[in-house]
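DM from R.C. (forwarded with permission)

"hey, sorry to bug you on a friday — could you get me a structure for this? deadline for the figure draft is monday and I only need the backbone to look sensible"
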Amino acid sequence: MGLLRAAADAVIVGAGTLRAEPFHCWTAEYVYPPFAEAYRTLRTNLRKSKPPLNVIITSSGDINLDLPVFQSGEVPVLIVTTTRGSQHIHERDVPSSVQVMALPGDDRLSAQAILEIVNDMCRSDLVLVEGGPQLMGDFLAERCLHELFLTLAPQIAGRDGSTERPGFVAGKRFAPEQPLWGTLVSVKCASNHLFLRYTFSTVTGTPIRS
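My reply, with the result:
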């Protein structure tokens, strides 16, 4: 994850992911501090002078602007929302390091439209999508995901119906009518974990990874 963030121009997450990890900043240094200097060297070699743009997706605009990702000033932040969501956000003080862009309509935001806004805000040769499941479903459904990095861990979680435990994709169903198939391009092993990398056919030119 650190390497992916270190190479990315922008990292996209949904508001649900932000609520689940309220003190997070989506940088390589945050995910693994011991390699902070190595990550900075990599970004310098890639001619990326600034941290990746942190892109927060929210239809409602119901997000806490007091969280570190907004208040620290350590990362540039773009909030992509709807017209209604933008009005809700601007009812509060928006930090100077945060930009808010509204897309027409009050429903779920299009993955393609999100990418267009991100590319308008900063030159993005590589965009990393870290979900959650609704956002992943939209990017897959619109064929906007070029590569998928999937980790298999030998832990059995299960579901008992007492609490909601979302799957990898939510809000979209592909199989059995139109299943999406990826092409496996690499497998790595660390301890008991498998790190899988797949490619998918897309309709966009910018490499989008998850």
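R.C.: lifesaver. Residues 111-121 form the longest helix (11 residues).
me: no worries. The two ends are 10 Å apart (CA to CA).
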